[in-house]
Design goal:
CATH architecture of the largest domain: 2-Layer Sandwich
Helix content: 25-40%
Shape: elongated
Number of domains: 2
Strand content: 15-25%
Strand order of the largest sheet: 1-12-11-10-8-9
Order of helices and strands: EHEHEEEEEHHEHEEEEH
Radius of gyration: 23 Å
CATH topology of the largest domain: Double Stranded RNA Binding Domain
Length: 330
């Protein structure tokens, strides 16, 4: 039995048909603040167009702050970066997000706290850091809102300069990198599957996505899109079966979630606790087409959908030959 698939935008209702592609729902964005308007200076000119990336600012755990104060600082940093025309969000990073890590140490006879703001790319390589001005220990430890916001506002210009410097260096060494060649896609390792499902699904998905015209890579460097696979197991309609849900989440470098491909089925209980084998083949074969359609609807692939088989989209990277018929899944 074929796996039921639903290729949908975020928060869309589940659809029952295999070939149903939900409309792409892209949230409209308001205008970014423009603090350099009228007095741009050198940095303002370089940031005339926001960079094609997003900085994730997770709640810091090594900043000598309570949890609620750490959340406030993360929000303040994201807000200050957006005011500097750098896309940012107070959230855990997506596969292609850059990450801002905040640390703090006591100085001045333990009467002050000095924050450090380190920016890393999506692969975890540190790109640069900004050391903030000392903040009175009491204000920092008590999570004084104005003190935390002031520290965030003071750090934002230095972080923006790091972004400008890194982007300029990359463009100078490879100015046509994003315009040439097939779309680059970062495939994250599948998670949540029993047995060897995580490894098998990741390997098969890599093969099929390559066959559909993508340059699939492990790292984030120059990748335009990210794909995450998440498997969830739940009780089925009877004690003899399990419900399997596989979600493929498609994101863009700027942090926008483009859509999801959802696959559902019921299998004999425990049948996926070992080798996935042909099941992984069938799941990846169907899901890769959904991922391709989501990215095409977002403008990431040129031309209409190909009428030929996936292998014809990229002759140099063909999907594997069809395996023997998989076991029938009820």
């Amino acid at each position: 039995m074929s796996w039921r698939s639903d290729r949908r935008a975020p928060r869309r209702r589940r659809a029952p048909l295999l070939a149903l592609l939900a409309p792409l729902a892209l949230a409209a964005c308001g205008d970014l603040p423009q603090p350099f308007r009228g007095r741009p200076g050198a940095l303002g000119a370089q940031l005339a167009a926001p960079p094609a990336l997003r900085i994730a600012v997770p709640s810091p755990t090594e900043a000598l702050l309570a949890a609620d104060s750490a959340d406030l600082l993360a929000e303040a940093l994201a807000e200050a970066l957006r005011a500097a025309e750098i896309p940012a969000a107070a959230t855990e990073p997506l596969p292609l997000d850059w990450r801002l890590r905040v640390e703090a140490r006591r100085e001045g006879g333990a009467r002050a706290v000095v924050p450090r703001f380190a920016l890393a790319d999506a692969d975890g390589t540190e790109l640069g850091a900004v050391t903030g001005a000392p903040v009175p220990l009491r204000a920092w430890a008590e999570g004084d809102a104005e003190a935390l916001r002031a520290a965030a506002r003071a750090a934002a210009p230095g972080i923006a300069e790091i972004v400008v410097r890194v982007e300029a260096a990359r463009k100078a060494t490879d100015p046509a990198a994003l315009a040439a060649g097939p779309p680059r896609l970062r495939l994250m390792p599948v998670r949540g599957a029993p047995g060897d499902g995580n490894t098998a699904l990741t390997a098969r998905m890599r093969e099929f996505l390559a066959g559909r015209g993508f340059l699939v890579q492990d790292g984030a460097d120059r990748a335009e899109f990210g794909v995450e696979g998440v498997v969830a197991m739940a009780p089925g309609a009877s004690p003899a079966v399990q419900r399997v849900e596989v979600q493929w989440i498609v994101t863009r470098r700027d942090g926008q979630e483009l859509g999801r491909v959802l696959q559902l089925n019921e299998v004999p209980r425990g049948s996926l606790d070992g080798l996935w084998g042909d099941v992984a083949y069938v799941v990846a074969q169907e899901a890769s087409g959904g991922v391709r359609d989501v990215i095409r609807n977002a403008g990431g692939l040129p031309g209409p959908a190909p009428a030929a088989s996936p292998a014809s989209a990229a002759p140099q990277a063909r999907p594997p030959a069809d395996p023997p018929a998989p076991p029938r899944l009820r």
